[in-house]
TrEMBL record, chain A:
Membrane-traversing stretches: 6-27, 39-62, 96-116, 128-145, 151-170, 182-204, 216-239, 260-278, 290-311, 318-340, 346-367, 387-404, 424-447, 468-490, 517-535, 617-636
Predominant place of localization: membrane
Domain NADH-Ubiquinone oxidoreductase (complex I) chain 5 N-terminal: 79-129
Domain of life: Bacteria
Taxonomic path: Bacteria, Pseudomonadati, Thermodesulfobacteriota, Desulfobulbia, Desulfobulbales
Molecular function in Gene Ontology: NADH dehydrogenase (ubiquinone) activity; NADH dehydrogenase activity
PANTHER family noted in UniProt: NADH-UBIQUINONE OXIDOREDUCTASE CHAIN 5
Species this protein is from: Desulfofustis glycolicus DSM 9705
GO BP, sorted A to Z: ATP synthesis coupled electron transport; electron transport coupled proton transport
GO cellular component terms, A-Z: endomembrane system; membrane
Protein name per Swiss-Prot or TrEMBL: NADH dehydrogenase subunit L
From TrEMBL, chain B:
The keyword Transmembrane appears for this protein: yes
InterPro entries: NADH-Q_OxRdtase_suN/2, ND/Mrp_TM
Transmembrane in keyword set: yes
Protein's membrane topology: Multi-pass membrane protein
The protein's name in its UniProt record: NADH-quinone oxidoreductase subunit N
UniProt-listed PANTHER family: NADH DEHYDROGENASE
EC number of this enzyme: 7.1.1.-
Positions of the NADH:quinone oxidoreductase/Mrp antiporter transmembrane domain: 115-407
Reactions the enzyme catalyzes: a quinone + NADH + 5 H(+)(in) = a quinol + NAD(+) + 4 H(+)(out)
Amino acid sequence: MEGNLSSLGFIPLLPLAGALVLGLMHLATCRGRLISERIYALVGCIGPILSFLLAVNVFFALQALPAQSRFLSHQAFTWFSVGELTISMGFLADPLSVLMLLFVTLVGSLIHVYSIGYMAGDPAFGKFFSYLNLFLGSMLILVLGDGPLVMFVGWEGVGLCSYLLISYYSEDRGNVVAGNKAFIVNRIGDFGFVLGMSFLFWGIGAEGFDYLSLKANAHLLAPTLGITVCLLLFVGATGKSAQIPLYVWLPDAMAGPTPVSALIHAATMVTAGVYMVARFSFLYAQVEVAGLVVAWIGIMTALLGAIFGMFQNDIKKILAYSTVSQLGYMFAGVGVAAYSAGIFHVFTHAFFKALLFLGAGSVILALHHRQDIWQMGGLKNKLPITYWTMLIGALALAGCPPFSGFFSKDEILYSALAGGHTGIWAIGVLVAGMTAYYTFRLIFVVFHGQPRDREVYDHAHESPKVMTLPLIVLAVGALFAGFLNLPAIFGGHQQVSHWLAPSLTEVHPHGSMATEVLAIGGSVLAFVVGISIAYRRFAGGAEQPVFTGFRKFAYHKFYVDELYDTVLVRPYRFVGQAVQRVIEPYVTDGPVRAAAWLYRMAGLAFKVIQVGYVRVYAIYMVIGLSVMSLVLSQSLNF
Amino acid sequence: MLFLPELIVLLSALVMFLVSLGKPTAPTIHRLAVVLGAAVLLATIAGLGLDGSLFYESYRVDRFSQVFKLLIGSATLIVLLFSGTAPGVKNDVQAEYYLFLLIGVLGLMMLVSSVELLAIFVALELSSFAVYIMVPMRSRSGNVVFQMESGIKYLLFGVMTTGFMLFGMSYLFGLTGSTYLTDIIDALALMTSEPAAMVAIMMVLAGFFYKLALFPFHFWVPDIYEGAANETTAFIAAVPKIAATAMLIRIVSLAAGDSENLVSILLFCSIGSMFYGNLCALVQTDLKRMLGYSAISHAGFVLFGLLTFGADGYATSLYYVTGYAAMNLACFLVICTVATNGENLAIADLAGLHQRSPLLALTLAIGLFALAGIPPFVGFTGKFMLLVNAFKQGLIIPVILAALNTAIALFYYLSAVRMAYCTDPEKAGQTLQPGPLRAGVAVVLLLIIIAMGVAPGGFLQIAATAIAAVL
């Protein structure tokens, strides 16, 4: 039932090779001053684009197969072999991974192209592209890996790259702290992931530790162990995909260059958690409780993200919280066992969120790195392409029919409603309204009304083609991607869900027509209400409000960062300092130092013997030889 | 034909002698020396397959001796290659320096073939006297003024151990009535309970212990290492050790391990060398002196292989001493290059080497890591195999002591590496150009150190066939 396809190995290999070549070029030429940016750009973009073409090729290869046997794999090499267990660096292309592959490589390539314009003139241009390639390559390993272990390689790889890229402008200490935060928070999640993986291996790993073997043996997993594994894996997902309680790193990740934010928020990294849960749908489908936990945490994260998003002033922070919020939707989807709906939202989100971030980048660049929306205004005329493309992205994010975000979000909410999770549905609708509000708050304040800072406004100019072109391509995606999974009520056939079916273990709920209409009606109503409030407040050109009471509380993100700092970081640091001050010098170092001192003294003692006089040495030698001869002759019996 | 490699060495020495009559410049002499060294190496390669005996059976040419000659020839050529124009040697005696060096090589090559007591004695003295003279040839340009003292010390020690050895040889002759090693082996087999026989062997061994710098015959090492020119020290540290190991293998196999006490005495010398060398090295500040003490401890390891009295142990010792020569030469290459005027180097002089010359710093680091016995380098593999061999023999406590010693040794090796890598040069922007020749030699040495460490199988095979020729 599996075919072999050796080109699979090349898909992650190409960007990784690009990263290596770029890195070497950068290092070999004294930090890249001798090579023009064009060459870096060419080398940097060729890998992702070729990977995309290969991914398309894989897609068609899969499509040619009958639906239930759409599995292509490739074992690149044996990674390690312990006893009877052999883990190989294997790649698996099935409908799920190919869908991910397609948009990851497409959006990734567009972001690479966009970066040529955005990063122009950066002193470490080559280094940036090297990291970017590494990031994409790691994500592709994550997606294509044929088992949890290979996935974990990519999982850690994107974690590392996010650290490198978030703290890319490392002259500013704040950026470095943000990078550290992302890495450390991710590591906490990884701990859960590793534990979950270990339990899974303990349970059913002996027969083979790749997805297909695990899926075949999933029914052997004891229920309690199943819950443990699912919850631990989800802890990993909360880290990577920024869910409660580990979402805190994502807004800070804005410290990196804007293309990086786009890459993290749209194509790579944060989608990894959702993908992982969908990958393990055969486990989550078995333990409904775990799914419910996932769904509720997801929808609560969606609410929290939306609340925070409503009260932010930084253009990138607003988008960042919208990502947290949208990721919450995705988890709500996979949590209520609507895996294809969750993945479909990942898919559409990749387009409109990348679009919004790149658009925001275009605005930021036009305004010479100003990010406060209350310094903008009226930019519609100055940045027409950016405006129109971002508007499409905003409509998609806000869930306006027929933009892509509407269909995917509606699919999730409908699944929740049809599955009997009314509470999740209700919160989801509320969040949809909030989403429409804060998205259009951004659009109205930035692009409409009168310019708030005349001087900044006068110097603003549209970005070069190399940046606007990716915006346009993404806008087309944001506009039409939704039609790929058009539900029956609109005369569609849900191609994406059918395509994904062989990879996922899911039961489609059969809701009545009324349910469906209710879901759609709720979504549309929420959108209309949200956008009209935003219009009334901001379209005419409002001034920066002063936050008080609850708004101030929300603006400061409920002081969660401070809470974590007080409850976790400080005690931890205190213990560390205590260990350093008390245990290190006396308990661990003490004996070592004593031993070192002892040997040094012995050395000095021997040094005394080495006096430098030949006569003394001669006596030593004579004595030595005599004693040795004496011992020899004494011992023999005579 | 059987004498071909030695003959070439002798001819080379004569060429040097003729050259010394004129007034050639130092670079010319060095180029000539390298060419002669290469010729010697080629001759040893050509002579690899020779088999037979000469001079009334007192001189055996077999696989064993030829492999050792090849090793001696290679090590000599490497020393000649990296010593450059020998800045540490007096300018007016450069030709004579190489003349004596070649004569020393001749003596060592003859030594590994000698199977008769008088032949052994003559060969040993030939090589020793050449080296005695090389030590005081050091120039005064450096910061050293005691080269004469070192030369005299070296000579005095040498004479003394020669005395011991001759005394032992006379006992052997008196006991067995023959000076041929084969006859002596047969005769000694009948008198293992004779104290005089053991004492005689002990005294003959003392002569080679001296060459190999084993406790308690090692006292000359630090002073001579420090007093001799860097190039001379490199030669002394590598080449005679190889020949001395060959002779030790021959002599130790005389005793054939019958005597428990001989084992314990060898053990005592071996472990004593390790501790003495390592502990003294801990407190050294001069780089060559430190390497001298480390040489003492490594000699202990070589002996550790011999006292298992088995073909495996001998082969491992051969492997170890070869690897030791390579790692030591790597370190001395760096010393000779860094000390541009032939001065002595303190460990502190290595400061910031990684900025001054990355290749040299890497060479030094890998050389010292290998000496310290860190995988995957040859020092680790060699020590590991020696210890495993000894462990199989049931020598558990000595194995523990030896392992403890590798831990002690780590400190001083790493402190030199730390100095080379973790500090800044005293003057910013200072660089060192090793030159293509030295760079090439450095890379070759590093490859040898790594290749022998990672894939010891091939070399052990050669060593085993060589050892099989003597047993």
